[in-house]
Amino acid sequence: MDLTEDQCQEFRDRGWIVLSDVFGPEEVELLSDAALDVLERPGPEVGREADGSPHVSWGMHLFNEQLAVLCRHENLINPSRTLLDNEVYVHQSRINIKQTNGSIVAWHQDFGTYHRVDGVPHPKGVMIAVFLDDVTEVNAPLLAVPGSHKEGLVSTASVDPSSPDFEQVSKYRYDITDETMARLVDQYGLETITASAGSVLFMDMTVVHGSTVNISPLRRLLLYVNVCPVDNRGETYERPEYYAARDFAPIIPVSSEEFQLAGQT
Ligand SMILES: O=C(O)CCC(=O)C(=O)O
User: How far apart are CA 121 and CA 252, in angstroms?
Assistant: First the structure.
């Protein structure tokens, strides 16, 4: 699977594209089971809600072989190579689950952290999201500012030490100020990103995005695979490997058949 020129143009203009039916129901089930297993881990790689339930897990490719194979899947890697015009490595992978009452993700750019904390030099990279649940307007979809990637790093982002998830999450997130958000939304607008289970989002790593609390009874489980070109590697190692890559070797894509075989072993 690769992208058409129209899809590449849409990615350049808006900052993202969504492809439907990339994974079938059996693959979605396989990935969901693997993700739920990883979210059971007790370690610091799992971030939690105030009530202790898991909300996010970083570095899924380091802890589960099926998810490691997903991170090399041709349907993720080939389009990313086309969009970035280079070989890629995985800078960060993560599982994000929003259960009922699952909490907000404040406005940010993934590149903001990768640059300021991990030393990734250039605003070049793709945030890939694999949808494992149907995401509609009602179960807290991603919200994103189209075109915001054209600004690079958008602002004096700040960290908030009073935030309850400071040590694991917001210490590193560099939330975007209300003033900057008001300007961006006035200039570019704001959109929801909805898609059915099995779809894949490719988003420029500098697009400003976030999400609200999920007050619906509908779970929202997404897997993220964030890739950068191999000539744009992290240069500082403040955070553990589950947050930020140490392995910068170009990924050799695996086929859908190899991916399915991994699920049978
Ligand atoms: O899934 C979401 O709501 C946003 C996740 C995200 O942007 C992040 O974890 O950095």
Answer: 23
Q: Tell whether the model's pLDDT for residue 171 goes beyond 80.
A: no
Atom 10 (ligand 1) nearest CA: 110
What average pLDDT does range 198-218 have in this prediction?
97
The residue nearest atom 3 of ligand 1, judged by CA position, is 211
Whether residue 105 has its Cβ less than 6 Å from ligand 1: yes
Contact 130 CB / ligand 1 (< 6 Å)? no
Question: Is any ligand 1 atom within 6 A of the Cβ of residue 222?
Answer: yes
pLDDT digits (tens, 9 = 90+) for 70-121: 999 999 999 999 999 999 999 999 999 999 999 899 899 999 999 999 999 9
Distance of alpha carbon 148 from alpha carbon 47, whole angstroms: 27
Residue 236 contacts residue 118 (beta carbons within 8 Å)? yes
* Ordered domains of the chain (ranges, CATH): 5-247+255-264 (2.60.120.620)
Amino acid identity for residue 231 in this structure: D
Q: For 113-149, write each residue's pLDDT tens digit.
A: 999 999 999 999 999 999 999 999 999 999 999 999 9
Coil vs helix vs strand at 57: strand
